[in-house]
Amino acid sequence: MTKKWFRIGMASVFLFSLALRFWGLGRFNTLVFDEVYFAKFGNNYLTHTPFFNAHPPLSQYMIGIGIWIGSHIPFWHDSVNGLTGSLRSPWTYRWFNALTGSFIPVVVAAIAYQLSYRRIFAILAGLFTACDGIFLVESRYALSNIYIVIFGLLGHWFFLLALDNQNRRRSFWLIFAGIGFGASVGTKWNGLWFLSGAYLIWIAAWVIHLIHSSLNSKLFFAPSSLKEAGGSRQESGGRSQELEVRRQESGVSTYSPSSPLSPSSQTPLQNLTQLNIFHILFYLGIIPAFIYSIIWIPHLQLDKTYGFIAVHQQILKFHLQLGGNSPNVHPYCAAWYKWPLMTRPMAYYYQTAGSITEPLPVMGPPLPAGAGQVIYDVHAMGNPFLWWFGVAAMLFLVGMLISQPVILWVKEKRFSMPATLSVDTWIALYLVINYAANLLPWVKVTRCVFIYHYICAVVFVFLAIAWFVDRCLCSYYQQLRALGVTITFIILAAFIFWMPIYLGLPLSPDGYKLRMWFNSWI
């Protein structure tokens, strides 16, 4: 793919994402789901109304800024309500989230490109992210989760850019990485897992480096006969290396010697060991903590009930009192292991009407069962096939990483490591570590949690399936190329099929049931 077509593709992904988020944005003249908190909180900052917030305040600042700007725009005010505490149009408290969410597929694509310098991989990653339902829903309402994601992803992108540069330019990007990670935590505490993913991939790189150095030093002091045998293996390895490269190009191999002269054989992750403990502690420790701290200043000036330490104690107390992870606490409680296969999505909005022309009530229960001929449902639910294929791709990457040392053990009759990990191995390591960093901390959480808490981890699932499809499309085997095209088509078709429940479009009862494949989805 040429640079021109890559730019056209990225612009198309962004415009597609933008159009979906702004189309019918003011359809429901009410507060949807947690807009009853976040839209009100954003308005409270404008009206100087003190309040307690169970999360760090950054997302509410952003919503408040959007309300202020939207209130000064001379359109979007055809319908208004006073549910935020002031007379506002739904557009005013939603448009900034819609704009912000439109950039998430672009940032995901930028990370994919920075990991591999492969344009098809980047386009696929952006397209798949734009075709996910839960990101679309979260972006269309005054909710907070998209801010965790976009700041966390920006932190990772800046981190990768830093690895791709040297000296002052590296420091410049590391500062921005620290700001991004700090802003993510300043939205919700679970934004910390994005930062922990950066720590873990850095630690993994050093562990690999030290293991390889240790094995080389042992080989250096080995008997001469063993060294000669190792040398003969290297001399006879040219043909096997060539075969490995051919297998990698066909989408089968995960290791090939990297050439420093070929950009396609390089990834910034190979430079992780150029970062020392000072870089990590200062740029990814002190700077995020500083950013997180100053984010609180406007809120603490507004509400002087608690100081900085006390407000954190109150937030922790609030979350500990939310109750166990059971449907008895909330009908949509879903433990972490239910998220990857999407067994318990949740309805953010559900109303029925007698006909399409009948106006929906601003607040109040739906019509009695059987009376409504039209259903309006906004479901916080991912694209099922994107999530399911993505989980399969992530498991494939895990298997790929595990298989490599096993294969080398069998070949060498001892534990060994390749001198240079391939680009795809680094990508697999990066995606698996960051996915685990954003999912596994929830294992120990006993309070009621919901599927939207998976939103930080699932972006790495999108990158995993995009990587797999990219490798299939670049394969020499026609069957693998056909598989890549088929997966892409199914993901796009699934997005179109479930789009009405992402956008809250009117559905007949039969049309609604057609999309609720499992009882646990309702």
Write the layout of secondary structure elements.
Layout: H1 3-22, H2 35-47, H3 58-71, H4 95-102, H5 104-116, H6 119-130, H7 133-139, H8 145-163, H9 167-185, H10 192-220, H11 224-235, H12 237-249, H13 277-295, H14 297-302, H15 308-320, E1 346-353, E2 374-380, H16 384-412, H17 423-439, H18 455-473, H19 478-503, E3 506-507, H20 509-515
Antiparallel strand pairs: 1-2, 2-3
Report what the structure shows.
The chain is mostly helical and 522 residues long. Helices cover 60% and strands 3% of the residues. The chain contains 20 helices and three strands. The protein has a three-stranded antiparallel beta sheet with strand order 1-2-3. Helix 5 runs antiparallel to helix 6, helix 5 (104-116) runs parallel beside helix 8 and helix 18 runs antiparallel to helix 19. The protein is globular, with a radius of gyration of 25 Å. The two termini are 42 Å apart.
Summary tags:
522 residues; mainly alpha; 3-stranded antiparallel sheet; 20 helices; 3% strand; globular
Mean pLDDT, all residues: 88
Rg (C-alpha, Å)? 25 Å
Write out the strand line-up for the largest beta sheet, numbering strands in chain order: 1-2-3
Distance between the termini: 42 Å
Structural class by helix and strand composition: mainly alpha
**Strand/helix succession:** HHHHHHHHHHHHHHHEEHHHHEH
The low-confidence runs, each spanning 5 or more residues with pLDDT under 50, are 219-264
Oligomer class: single chain
Number of strands: 3
What is the global morphology?
globular
Tally the helices: 20
Beta fraction of the residues?
under 5%
**Quick one: biggest sheet?**
3 strands, antiparallel
- Helical amount among residues, as a percent range? 55-70%
